[in-house]
Amino acid sequence: MTMTALDVIDEALRQPAIGRRRDLTSRLSRLRGRLADPAIRVVVVGGLKQGKSQLVNALLGTSVCPVHDDVASAAPAVIRHADQSWAAVVRPGQQRLEPVEIERVAEEISGGQVVRAEVGVPRAVLSGGLVIVDTPGVDGLRSEHTSRTLAELAEADAVLAVTDSLTELSPAELQFLRFATTICPNVLGVLTKTDMSPRWRSHLERNRMLIAEAGLAIPLVAVSSVLRERALRTSDQNVNAESGFPALVGYLENTVKAQAGLLARRSASEAILAVTEQVSLGLRAELSTQDPSSLAGLEDAQRAAELLRRQSSRWQNMLMDGMADLMSDVDHDLRERTRIILRHTDQAFDKADPAKTWDQFCDWLADKLTDAVLRNYDWTVERTHWLSQRIAEQFDEESRGTLPDLGLRDPARVLERMGGLLTPDLAPPGIANKVITGLRGSYSGMLMFGLLTSLMGMPLVNFVSVGAGAVMGAKTLKEERDAQLKRRQAVAKTAVQRHVDELVFQVGKHSRDALRQVQRRLREHFTEQAEQLQDALSDSIRRARDLANADLVARNQRNQSIAEEINTLVALRQRAQALAITS
Amino acid sequence: MITQELLTEDTRAMLEWALRLYRGSAKATNFLTQQRQLFEEPLRVGVTGRPKAGKSTLLDALDEDDFIEGHTSDVDAVLHLTGPVRAEDRSALQGNPIPVNTIVVLARADELGGGRVDAMSSAKMIARRLRAEPELGQLCQDVVAVAGLLAVAGRTLTDAEFDALVALAALPREELDELLLSTDRFMNPALEDVVLRQGLLECLGLFGIRLCTTLVRRGYGDPSRLAAELVQRSGLNDLRLSIRRHFTERAPVLKARSALVAVETVLRAEPRPEARGLHAEVERIQVTTQDFRELRLLAALQTGRIELPSEIATEAEQLLGLSGTSPANRLGSDDGADLLHIAMAVLDRWQAYASNPVWRRAQTTAAKTVVHTCEAIIDTLTRP
How many CB atoms lie within 10 A of CB B53? Predict the structure, then answer.
């Protein structure tokens, strides 16, 4: 029988040699807690009206997700395993879950008055921590629904990208798939509504080709939720096979869950190897003090402790300097990116009339800014990983520990909160305004020339003065129009400048906060590693001294038990290694 | 109506003016000559939408000569086809300088409803909701749900196909339901008549077959009655009615709109100092034409940008031509009634609204537009 990660951790916790070390047991217990509740988030995404919610309902045999011919889901629904069905919603502006009846949860989700719904249902497919998240349809890349969906995507362990089999993938859908793979490597394409599409097989083939041509590695399955629901109702295995759902369930069981298990086993394995290494180190040090060279062992341990102190100050300096550099680089990078956008904006509004091009411009600007912020974020993540690797290198191979998840928060929520660019007052002057301006010019022209010509004995209103009036009126009108255009361009530029400043400020604040959090996390991790080393060393020094003074019989007994403990630890290490290899 | 005749004359004069002004430019002259010729031709409607939106099917269903597939330039009015309305549809509709010439069509409406027998009524409800949506309402005149496949099939159903449908409808209920559960089952090669069934699926879709067998069971036993019912249910008649109300009856307005947009294009592409007068004329026609004013006010009322007490708003919408532009339609009464008498009473009432001291300025301005409309109705009625 193969042992699960939890079994091996439990066995490690039972070892007396490990049990003596508080720091190590607490580390293993924490890992055990995390592995015992491994939520594997599977996020269901796709365009409007592709049958996402119906897919989730059919998969689970429930009706918790709202299915409607019109736009149905307005908020994500998070569905997990529970022995008893329950449902709760989060209202806008609140944090806490408000319980609702499970029959009413679909209505709540489509009603638009909730931010998120949480549902528990007793379903076997959800066991083992599988959590399914049904999301509102993605429409363009900017609407409010879309940003909620993207936020969910960031936390996904696997993504089901849903599109119907009535037509083949559109360029926009392909682009979205590409985007999804950059956020989460585990993407499965699901073609729905095969029952309605006479040509779903050819669309499936064509889509496979399109995906391969796009250089993506996304497997596809084709399903019919209608057939699946019927199969569940009648418990008919044949209909279930016809629905295509077995392939989908198989993917969830064999790929998503299995990979999540592999990940859990790997981290358990690494933790146990690290812990046993440390304990064996202590035990061996104790054994060596039995030798005539015991004093040398004591000196070795003391030297190691000194080295550790030096190492410790080095990594702390490195972390502080590295983080300070990183923060200023990230800030500079964002400013540089937005500065280029602003330059383009200025160039555009030197020529164009913002009153006419404002809406297209807003779209362009939102695209560019989102892109800049996300690229800046990607770069930040890369640099942070690099820095933590450099720091880890300051430690020995075995005392380095597994780097913690840095969990750098992405700026999607900041972008969401920022909202769009406020439209400044760009209204071109109305016709009445133009008439008045024109009149003003023509009046003064007429008066001027009228007075002149009246000296020549003509009436005040004559053909010369009227002509002059017309010319001056037109001139004033043109000047006024130019001045208005200049004003609008200036107003537009200022509005954009202000918007970008605000964005840089908000995103900058966000990334500084996020980086500080990462800094804290890294510091805690490496401090813990350093303390463990320190503890191990002082432990062995103390015992070396004790033993030097103890009597021979007791010493021999102790030697015996140390040898036994080391043997059990070796066996445990083998099991931990096996854990990481089994798939 | 008299205003439309005036508008046509004004527009023609404007085109001539532009031609005179741009005599020197071969490119502009070519374009304007073409526009002048188009102006005298009947209304042309373009059908747009994403690939596979169902454009050619709808063109088949409508069977009109002056409707063409393709882009929005060079046509007077647009049928924009879409499935669920997406962001890309909205951006496609934006950028229309005078958006009084667009109907959004929820094509493939049967698929919106998951192919259930009641899918069409559900699609029609979605169309109604979208019509009331302020954002979309500003971009188009109407939203209509149509199942193009069904409409075409209604016209082209062969006897052999009809017989096959009758045979299907005669199957026991449960057997038929099983067969129609999915296209795979319907095309099961183990059954006979696969070729005929393939044909049915191609021309009706699974939804169409479900609907037809249900209708045959309900007693639509002969081909012509079934065909008529299919056309009725497909929403094609609703679309035709909408086209008549918004396009055909306002054809002169839409033609004038095309000409105005064309002349504006030339003025923008080749600006000339001496074109200032023409510029002003284009603007004058846009601002003063009662039909444009009516359409703008109609849109403002429907989108809630201008609010009036609900009964008054309903009357205003009708007078402005929401349900047809004939005097009887506008006044909401039969042709036989004493329309002139009614129109006088309506005029009095709206004159009172226009000087109502409690109303805000936007409201009284709206009322004044309706007063002009009433005057035009009376003018039409009293002319010999």
Answer: 22
Question: Which residues 6+ apart lie within 8 Å of A215 measured at CB?
Answer: none
Residues of chain A with pLDDT > 90, as a percent, come to: 13
Domain of residue A218, CATH code? 3.40.50.300
Question: For residue B153, which of B215, B106, B67, B105 has the smallest C-alpha distance?
Answer: B215
Residues 277-296, chain B, touching A (beta carbon < 8 A): 283, 287
Over the range A44-53, which residues count as b (16 or more CB within 10 Å of their CB) and which as e?
Answer: bbbbbbbbbb
Rounded CA separation A61/A144 (Å)? 29
Enclosing domain of residue A118: 38-243
Q: Give the phi and the psi of residue A415 in degrees, each rounded to 5.
A: -60, -40
The reported pLDDT for the residue numbered A492 is: 84
In chain B, what percentage of residues exceed pLDDT 90? 13
Partner-chain contact B114 A193, CB within 8 Å: yes
The rounded distance, in Å, linking the Cα atoms of A504 and A147 is 19
Q: Which of A446, A463, A489 is the last residue of a domain?
A: A489
b/e per residue A274-313 (b: at least 16 CB within 10 A): bbbebbbbbbebbbbbbeeebeebbebbeebbeebeebbe
Q: Look up the ipTM and state it.
A: 0.75
Contact partners, residue B343, CB within 8 Å, separation at least 6: B327, B331, B374, B377, B378, B381
Three-state secondary structure call for residue A8: helix
Instruction: Report CA torsion sign: A561, A567, A573, A576.
Output: negative
Q: Is residue A102 in a domain?
A: yes
**Sheet of strand B102-106, all strands in order from the earlier edge strand to the far edge:** B67-69, B45-49, B77-82, B102-106, B142-145
Distance CA A360, CA A379 (A): 29
Residues in chain A: 583
Here the tokens at position B360 are 């805000």
| Residues on chain B touching A48 (C-beta within 8 angstroms) | 84, 86
DSSP code of residue B43: P
Last residue of a domain, one of A196, A212, A243: A243
Structural domain contains residue A399:
no
- Most confident among A298-312, A417-431, B368-382 (mean pLDDT): B368-382
A206 inside domain: yes
Burial (CB count <10 Å: 0-12, 13-18, 19+), residue B371: buried
Q: Which amino acid is at B300?
A: A
Report yes or no on A70 lying in a domain.
Answer: yes
Q: Do A197 and B183 touch (CB under 8 A)?
A: yes
Is the CB of B119 less than 8 angstroms away from the CB of A142?
Answer: no
Q: Look up tokens 């209204």; give the residue.
A: A427
Going along chain B from its start, the domains and CATH numbers come out as 2-147+236-261 (3.40.50.300), 151-234 (no CATH), 290-382 (no CATH)
Q: What total number of domains does chain A contain?
A: 2
Kindly state whether B128 is in contact with chain A, defined as any CB-CB distance less than 8 angstroms: no
Is B24 within 8 Å of B44 (Cβ atoms)? Answer: no
Closest CA to A89 of A68, A116, A129, A69: A116
C-beta of residue A412 within 8 angstroms of C-beta of residue A183: no
Question: Nearest-CA distance from A519 to chain B in Å?
Answer: 41
- What pLDDT digit, counting tens, does each position of A227-241 carry? 999 999 999 999 999
The per-residue pLDDT for B65 is: 75
Residue A399 pLDDT > 70: no
